Amino acid sequence: MTKQAPGVRIGGLTVVYKTPAGELPAVRDVSLTLEPGTITGIVGESGSGKSTLALSLLNAVQPPGRIAAGSVEIDGLGDVAGLKGEQLRKARGKHIGYVFQAAQNSLNPLKTVGKQLLDLGRSHGVDDLRGLVREARELLGRMGLDGARVLDSHQHELSGGMRQRVGIMLALVLNAHLVVLDEPTTALDMITQANILKIVREVHQERGLTTLVITHDIGVVAEVADRLAVMYGGRLVEQGPTRQVLGAPQHPYTRGLIKAIPRLVGDIDEAQALPGRPPTLATVPVDGCVFRERCPLRMDVCDTVDPEAHADGSRIVACHAVTVKEHA
Question: Coil, helix or strand for 44?
């Protein structure tokens, strides 16, 4: 029987890290739904909390971090935030495939890819290891690689693009139907990046996956995602269908990100960098809007009141200025 693509419902998720100044939130009160069979992109600058949010889907936030509140409900698994021990270990890999940000960091430099594949199979109780190897070769072949040669290679014998494809293979080989890709194209040249995105789209469709892509590159989500969520300072500030969000951004941060993209044609000076810097864990404001220090639409209420996420059809925006404009 073919597994159905799972839906994911993240509700009120808060992830904190213990620091000398106390527990500080890296992700605060985030709610997000991944519809079954869709690709969702989360975009934001470095330090916005994207990877921490993604790791929460595996319940893999490491100390001194912890999930302080909220839930991560995945169809067929329940609330992953409450899973522990053997239950959690079995969920990782078998139900949830994860492609880590730096592919080489998730590979053992002392073992060939094939030996790591067999270790993965044994740890998940796969009886037909030969079948697992055949599946891995086939996946690698479909991604334009010589499967036999790659399985016989160590990580240092593979290029960045090849290692990224190995990461995708390892995330899919146990037939996971929820796949998380954390910065899948970082540090890759443009041709390799285009190939990786093509592979992500094809594999997603053919295997009937629910896919989450984490990136700082709006071009990546524009290429693959059905729905886009924009993250800043640990909060989701805007969500909606990708074309709608990119075509008519409502939150000033989303507009700033889009304006900062250099164009291939026209005046190169039209690209405008966002003023200021994103907040760190220690400088995220406790009260008020997290974006106010860099916001051209800042109002008095932004200093003291955290804007609530306001739904308008399929769009969700957390911004006082947008809410005031809508009710004007």
Answer: coil
